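We were asked to recover a plausible sequence for a given structure. The inputs and outputs are reproduced exactly as logged, with field labels preserved.

PROBLEM: sequence recovery
POSITIONS: 642
GIVEN STRUCTURE:
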């Protein structure tokens, strides 16, 4: 029975490793719920093994303490977070990653299991790389049935090409290692070598500068490692020669292709360097202001607007540098815990190094699957650490989970060096382990059920007509399930405000006041969002434009919005619109001009208003109440790029 449970855990973990890259990285809610479900199944089988195994043991290398400490720290920061919803989602991800780490270390440390866990993603990566090459050759923008914004660049089953590059650069060293230094049969070695070459081609067609540089770096690092090992020096030299020849052959062609290929949206993983550096600077400023504990889990994107550089008007989501992102969200305390985990992992690799190498005679060293795993996984992790300097790939669950898997496989190698990290599980330890596993299952399971129900109604709302009553009702049902989501509260407020402007009810003023109530809820749930404050101000402009108290309150609301987003083009346009409602066209003109200075291209709202304002000023019609400009009355331009 215990053996069947172990095989079940292996199957569930493999399902996670296969599903996440195929499901565009598992970035959508329903995809993440699948990951949570598979993890819960593995936890249940592990808990069963604790009680039915003849001699249950716990493998607890030193890195496990650092992982557990970060989970506890994440839980503490969750209860201190300003935006509960964002923090909860981030902390749940941290918990799932940690659980997968513990599951692999304690249940999949046998050589057979490790081989399956290592080679299955290698062959999957080869298949995804072939798909990316087809996208590149055919100039296809399809990722499954979805359209990518990166036409002419291969992205495989990921949306962003850089994500594919980051995923493959962790697999290429593993494939080469098994091809060069493992004890696999000749046929399997050839397949692994072929897989490595195909994945290198996959990285090339992504046209990711960071991906190409990191891939070259990890191949060179691997060559150096092989050249320092007796018996593998010729293979290391051959690998260096191959890298140089291939690099010289393909670099001019890739440079030409990249020159004529769109780099994609500026807020994505291919942001121009000047914008990327500006985002890094904003991240460092956020860290400086929240030095020790950070702004909060997944808070960077919300806090960012206060530090927004004028050259970037879209929400970046992440810092485009995982190290700065770590400091901005988690502070020095979180960074120290993460660094300690990596340091303990490195110490474990050093300690187990000579124990995983094949036996040596006078002529050569025997091949070893343990050594192949250690070399390939270690170099792959070096790759993702390097790429994290210029991208935010660890926000993609597929990439983060594979990184965690490599760390777990390497950590379990310590069992070959010493027996000191094994603990016999007697009644007391069994009870503690069971309580921890059961509590984790309850937390993840309950959160998953709520997230699934909320996601159902949010997707229903997305299918309805914008700002319609049916859309509002769907949002309200989602909010009833998840009353901590500030974006849902804002969406309901937008529906109410727009329907009030369109006079869809007999009492439009009452509907506008209802919109204000939803905006105020949004302010409480996310104090960093300027658009809730602007929404309240727009409602006051609509229902009480002549009342002195309402004017003062609306002015305060727009001042708060501007303070939360001082370099926001859209926020500046909304403030300018407020002054047109007051009839202060001179002030309105300055705000619209400011909005256009921040974004001069395809910025229709301030451009159309400015045309009217100039006309009103020229005609001397300062006291004339303006009509709505910029399209349908009450229409709200999309604020956040999804």
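RECOVERED SEQUENCE:
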């Amino acid at each position: 029975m215990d053996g069947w449970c172990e095989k079940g855990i292996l199957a569930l973990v493999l399902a996670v490793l296969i599903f996440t890259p195929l499901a565009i990285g598992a970035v959508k809610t329903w995809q993440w719920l699948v990951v949570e479900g598979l993890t819960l199944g593995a936890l249940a089988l592990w808990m069963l093994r604790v009680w039915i195994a003849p001699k249950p043991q716990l493998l607890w290398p030193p890195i496990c303490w650092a992982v557990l400490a970060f989970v506890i720290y994440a839980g503490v920061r969750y209860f201190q977070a300003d935006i509960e919803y964002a923090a909860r989602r981030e902390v749940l991800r941290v918990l799932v990653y940690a659980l997968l780490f513990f599951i692999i270390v304690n249940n999949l440390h046998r050589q057979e299991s490790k081989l399956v866990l290592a080679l299955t993603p290698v062959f999957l990566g080869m298949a995804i790389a072939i798909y990316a090459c087809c996208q590149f050759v055919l100039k296809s923008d399809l990722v499954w049935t979805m359209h990518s914004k990166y036409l002419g660049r291969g992205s495989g089953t990921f949306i962003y090409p850089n994500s594919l590059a980051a995923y493959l650069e962790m697999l290429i060293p593993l494939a080469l290692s098994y091809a060069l230094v493992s004890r696999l049969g000749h046929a399997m070695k050839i397949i692994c070598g072929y897989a490595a070459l195909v994945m290198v081609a996959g990285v090339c067609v992504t046209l990711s500068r960071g991906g190409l540089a990191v891939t070259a770096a990890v191949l060179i690092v691997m060559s150096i490692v092989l050249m320092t090992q007796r018996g593998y020096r010729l293979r290391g030299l051959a690998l260096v020669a191959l890298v140089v020849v291939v690099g010289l052959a393909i670099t001019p062609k890739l440079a030409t292709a990249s020159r004529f290929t769109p780099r994609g949206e500026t807020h994505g993983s291919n942001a121009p360097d000047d914008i990327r550096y500006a985002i890094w600077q904003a991240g460092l400023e956020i860290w400086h202001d929240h030095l020790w504990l950070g702004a909060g889990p997944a808070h960077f994107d919300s806090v960012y607007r206060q530090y927004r550089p004028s050259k970037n008007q879209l929400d970046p989501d992440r810092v485009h540098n995982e190290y700065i992102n770590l400091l901005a969200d988690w502070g020095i305390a979180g960074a120290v815990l993460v660094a300690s985990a990596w340091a303990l992992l490195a110490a474990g690799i050093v300690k187990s190094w000579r124990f995983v190498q094949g036996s040596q005679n006078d002529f050569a060293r025997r091949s070893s699957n343990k050594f192949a795993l250690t070399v390939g996984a270690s170099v792959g992790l070096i790759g993702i650490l390097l790429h994290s300097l210029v991208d935010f790939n660890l926000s993609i669950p597929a990439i983060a989970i594979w990184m965690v898997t490599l760390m777990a496989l390497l950590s379990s190698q310590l069992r070959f060096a010493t027996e000191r990290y094994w603990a016999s599980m007697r009644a007391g330890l069994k009870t503690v382990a069971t309580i921890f596993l059961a509590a984790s299952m309850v937390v993840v399971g309950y959160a998953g059920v709520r997230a699934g129900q909320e996601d159902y109604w949010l997707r229903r709302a997305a299918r309805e007509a914008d700002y319609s009553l049916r859309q509002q009702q769907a949002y309200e049902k989602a909010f009833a399930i998840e009353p901590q989501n500030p974006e849902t509260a804002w969406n309901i407020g937008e529906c109410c405000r727009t329907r009030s402007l369109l006079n869809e009810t007999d009492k439009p003023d009452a509907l506008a006041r209802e919109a204000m109530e939803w905006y105020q809820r949004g302010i409480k749930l996310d104090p960093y969002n300027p658009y809730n404050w602007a929404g309240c101000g727009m409602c006051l402009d609509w229902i009480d434009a002549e009342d002195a108290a309402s004017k003062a309150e609306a002015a305060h609301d727009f001042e708060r919005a501007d303070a939360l987003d001082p370099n926001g083009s859209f926020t500046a346009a909304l403030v300018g619109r407020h002054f047109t409602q007051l009839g202060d066209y001179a002030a309105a003109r300055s705000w619209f001009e400011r909005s256009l200075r921040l974004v001069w291209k395809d910025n229709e709202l301030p451009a159309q208003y400015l045309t009217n304002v100039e006309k009103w000023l020229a005609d001397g019609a300062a006291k004339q109440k303006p009509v709505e400009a910029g399209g349908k009355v009450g229409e709200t331009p999309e604020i956040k790029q999804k």
